[in-house]
Each structure stands twice: as structure tokens, then as C-alpha cells.
Amino acid sequence: MKKVIILSFVLVNTMFAAFCQNEKFNAVMTSTLEEMKVAKTPEESAAVAAKFERIGDAEKTQWLPYYYAALIKAQVAMGAKDKDKAADEATALLDKAAAIEKDNSEIFCVRATICYAHMMVDPMTRWMQYGAEATTNLDASIKADATNPRPIILKANSLKNTPEQFGGGCATSKPLAEKAAKLLADFKPASSLHPTWGKELVDQILESCK
Q: 115: closest CA among 97, 98, 138?
């Protein structure tokens, strides 16, 4: 009987410690996501990405911190002077997320964004390689979760920025953006910490294609 009581006590303590750790993780992630929303400069974004990376290093089994760190780096890479360097930094972080969470739709979206950043270094010579890689990742994202609006948004944005003679422009971009907007309205994230971004971008596409 005494052993049962001790075992029960240890089990309760373990569960309580796990609960407290989970609450702590949720709290720090929530506050860092708020910082991510208000970051305006590359320096501020870099500081938030570094914070997410530290959270990931501390938690070990959580993919979301590395995902957000990579997402920020990938977005910053689009406007960085050394796009390849910033994109490679994003890839290193995303690989850590992918090692924890396999075949994840959101992770594939960030890989596509990284491809676009690499392509922007020299679009004329790089579009065949990185454009194809981006498409492959977006297709994988849709396959992993057909309800996720973000790969559709990224496809629509890519087409919006592609010349009409190569199959781009509003004629092909707008229908995808409209589909993405509907998916976004219906999308239910797994938790308050999971990705919800995309509305601002899809609204921009639809506004420019009126």
C-alpha cells in the first residue's frame, strides 16, 4: 500500500511539473508572438527570431519556436542585401523544426519562401531552379493539409508577380487568392500558438487585382 501511495505521489508531481512547464512555454510563446506582430525593422525582427530560437533550444521537442524563427528569417531575407546568407540561416532553423515535426504543411510553406528569397538574388538565372523548388514545396504543403490557406496564398502571390506572357498576372492569381481567402476564413489553427498569417497578403493581391 505504501508503495502505491509513493508511486501515486510521484506521478502527480510529474504531471504537475509537466503542466507548469507547458504553461510556461505557452506564456513565453504568446508574448514572443506579440513581439513578432509589432516588429517593424530588420533589427527588431532579428531580435524576435533570436528569442524564438532560444525557446526552441530550451524546449528541444517543440517545433513551433524554430518554425517562427525560420519564418522571420525567410521574410527578412526577401529584402536583405545578402539574401542567400539570410535564406541559409532560415533553412538551418527550419531544418531543426522539420527534424521534430515531419511532413508539416506550414514548414513546407516556409521552405517555399526561402526558395523565393534565393531566386530574388538573380531571377533571370535562378527562376528555373528555385521557382521549381518553391512549387514542389507548396504542392507538398497542400498535400499535407488541403485546408491550409497559406500555400495557396503563396502560389497566388507568385503568380501575381509573374509576367502574363509566362502564365502569371491577375488572370491566374486572382482565382487562387479568392480560394485562399475562403480557406483562411474557415481555417481553425490547432492552438493559439499555431500559424494564422496570410490575410494581409491575400487582401493585397485581391485589392491589386480588382
A: 138
- CA–CA distance, 106 with 94 (Å, rounded to integer): 10
Q: Which three cell numbers stand for residue 160?
A: 501575381
What pLDDT, on the 0 to 100 scale, is given for residue 9? 38
Q: Which amino acid is at 115?
A: C
Give the integer Cα–Cα distance in Å for 171 and 98: 35
> Which ranges of the chain have pLDDT less than 50?
4-20
Say if pTM beats, i.e. exceeds, 0.90. no
Quick: pLDDT tens for 162-178: 989 888 999 999 999 99
Predicted confidence at residue 21, as pLDDT, reads 60
